[in-house]
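Technical note accompanying the year-one report. For the benefit of new consortium partners, we illustrate the data format agreed upon in the data management plan: each record pairs a sequence with a structure-token string. No post-processing was applied to the example shown here.
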Amino acid sequence: MRWLFLLLLVLNFFYWVWSERFSTRGAHESPASPSLDVSSGIQLVSESRDATRAKAGEPRREVCLFLGGFQSEERGRQVVQRLLSLDVASSVEQVERIVATDYWVYLPPLASRQASLHQLRELQAKKIDSYVITQGDLVNGISLGVFSRAEPAKAAMQHFRDAGYEPMVRELSRVRHDYWVKVAPEGARLFDERLMGILARSFPGLQHQQKECEGVASPGRLE
């Protein structure tokens, strides 16, 4: 009986020691916290400032009003005077635009005028209409014709190649000068349908469009 009592006492002692060690270890361990991924929602202060500076550094593009296009500068000046009477400042600007392209077929310049004249006589003997170029960077070359479309020019070049020559082609732009009235942004903001109607009645066919003020607006962009 005494041995049974001692056995129970030893077992209780070991149970108490085990319980004390488990509770002590559990007290020092904290449960694992869930992982939080917040990197995607964070923006550095420096990055925010850089973005603000980039926006602040973007040049502001001013918009002007262009009125035109006139065949004569005098007509444009009349619009300027009319706007001045309405307390709107403006100026006339000349615009050069390409209205057509011609194709010049020619033979390259030879070493001397005598050689060119000899080649010209040879061409004329073959009943090829041609003449010696006397000025410009193609001086002493032979002009074989100017064509208003690319297809006839290509056909002519092939004809001359078949005849034993090596022709070349150069594009010649035909330009026209128009005159446009440029109204600065502060004046352009004053325009409304009423003011535009007044100008349209005084200047039939007047075109208008708002474009960036940099450079001169070309008629091709004033749609």
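Partners are asked to follow this layout when depositing records. The beta strands are 63-70, 90-107, 131-132, 142-147, 168-183, 207-212.
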